[in-house]
Write a structure and sequence with these properties.
The protein has three helices and two strands; from the N terminus they run αββαα. It is rod-shaped. Helix 1 (3-16) packs antiparallel against helix 2 (30-82). The protein has 187 residues and is mostly helical.
Length: 187
């Protein structure tokens, strides 16, 4: 599964979460978050595999360039051998063969450099994506841990509120007997 799709799902999960009143904190379904994180962990090897495929593609291009260079060199050698009978033609053939070999080497170096730059750019891009995803996951973990700590700190306040809201017992007054009146502080 595409890692960007999973990040979007994580964002949707946070958007669906319940917000604490007058705070920036959101309660999210822990099971769903953990499931998405597991899916992300499984998706990252896919991204690494894509990078490996890019490297393999570079190696194929290099191999093709080397084969082309070898083919050009072989053609130049064959050409020079065919013209060995005539001295002036032999000199020209050697010059031409050297030129072709030099051009083939220049082309091979250019292809190698371009392939290396392409692979490096892709790997840097992948590193940035993975770093971003890792930062998002770490932030999510820190938010979850902060919310747990806040919930633990908030618990004593709820005990105080519960204690204050409990009814205070009052003495029972019997109005059947008019002589009895509520007893105050004993005076």
């Amino acid at each position: 599964m595409d890692i960007l799709h999973l990040v979007n799902r994580m964002e949707d999960l946070v958007d669906e979460g319940r917000r604490f009143f007058t705070t920036k904190y959101t309660v999210v379904d822990e099971e769903r978050v953990l499931d998405l994180l597991d899916q992300m962990r499984m998706s990252i090897p896919d991204e690494i595999e894509k990078a490996a495929q890019t490297i393999e593609q570079r190696d194929r291009v290099l191999a093709e360039a080397n084969e082309e260079a070898a083919r050009i060199v072989q053609q130049a050698r064959q050409h020079s051998e065919d013209m060995i009978d005539e001295h002036d033609l032999v000199k020209q053939a050697k010059v031409r063969a050297e030129y072709v070999v030099e051009q083939a080497n220049i082309q091979a170096q250019a292809i190698t450099r371009e392939a290396d730059e392409y692979v490096l750019a892709r790997l840097n891009q992948l590193e940035q994506q993975i770093t971003g995803y890792l930062a998002e996951v770490r932030n999510g973990i820190e938010d979850m841990q902060y919310q747990e700590a806040a919930a633990v700190e908030a618990a004593p306040e709820s005990d105080v509120i519960a204690a204050v809201s409990e009814p205070v017992p009052r003495p029972i007054i019997n109005f059947d007997r008019p002589a009895q009146a509520p007893i105050g502080n004993g005076s």
